[in-house]
Each structure stands twice: as C-alpha cells, then as structure tokens.
Amino acid sequence: MADTLELELVSPESLLMTQAVEMVVVPGEEGDFGVLPGHAPMISTIRPGTLAVFEDGKVAQRYFLAGGFAEVTTERCTILAEGAIRLEDIDRAALEQELRNLREDVGVAGDETAVVSLQIAEAKLQALDSPTYAGAH
C-alpha cells in the first residue's frame, strides 16, 4: 500500500489542487470521513464544511467547501466542489456583513436561494470558528 493518495480538488472556476497527500478528511453529507491510501471505492455527496488535508501527520491545508461530490478510489480522492476557498482566505468582516444581508433577505422575501446562501455562509463562519483540525498553518 502506498504512503500517499492523489487529491484533486476542482471547483466550477478552476482546478484548485492536484497533489499527493497522506490523508484527507471530507465533510460528507452523512458526516466527516477520512480517506487514506487504499480506501474502498465510494462516491459521496458533500455538505458545506471543512476539507482537511493532512501531510506529515498534521493538517497542512483547510478549505471550506460549499457542497459537491467526492469520488474515492484506492489511490485517488477527487472532490468536485460547488465552491471552495482556503479558510485562511476568508474575510471574516465581509462574511459577517454577508450574513447580515442574507438574514435580512430571508426575513423579507423568504427566497429559497437566499435560504441556501444563508446556510452556506453560516457553515463558512462555523468552519472559521471550529477548533476541529485547527492545526493547519
């Protein structure tokens, strides 16, 4: 069994990452799941949450995923994300303003699109505040 697996992270805008990693923890719809080299093949939906990439026994990178799909094989994990951003690139002040605006939009119109956007923005804030996998640089 190899020591690494290939991680490919793709968003609608671009290919964000293709690299060999030790492990990745994916925010699956049914709960977080870890992927190591030799993992059983599977496909899973992804909920809004944090993707943690492990190298040298610790979290090396964290991304916020807005949702999507993960395809896992014994040697590869491909993430097709609806949206993805490195946690360190999230502007907290802008996010908090976006949350205020979305809460107002939902309260006024009850628009389904605004409701989904609000849920994603709330999950993004939770990802920023979460101590889980906090060892990232």
Looking at CATH, the homologous superfamily of the largest domain is F0F1 ATP synthase delta/epsilon subunit, N-terminal
* Category from helices, strands and their pairing: alpha+beta
- What share of the residues lie within helices? 25-40%
Overall, the morphology is elongated
Average predicted confidence as pLDDT: 88
Percentage of residues in DSSP E strands: 35-45%
By CATH, the architecture of the largest domain is named Sandwich
Strand order of the largest sheet: 2-1-9-8-5
Total domain modules: 2
> Order of helices and strands, N to C?
EEEEEEEEEEHH
- Biggest sheet details: 5 strands, mixed
Nearest-angstrom radius of gyration? Answer: 16 Å
List unreliable stretches of 5+ residues.
none
Per DSSP E runs of 2 or more residues, the count of β-strands stands at 10
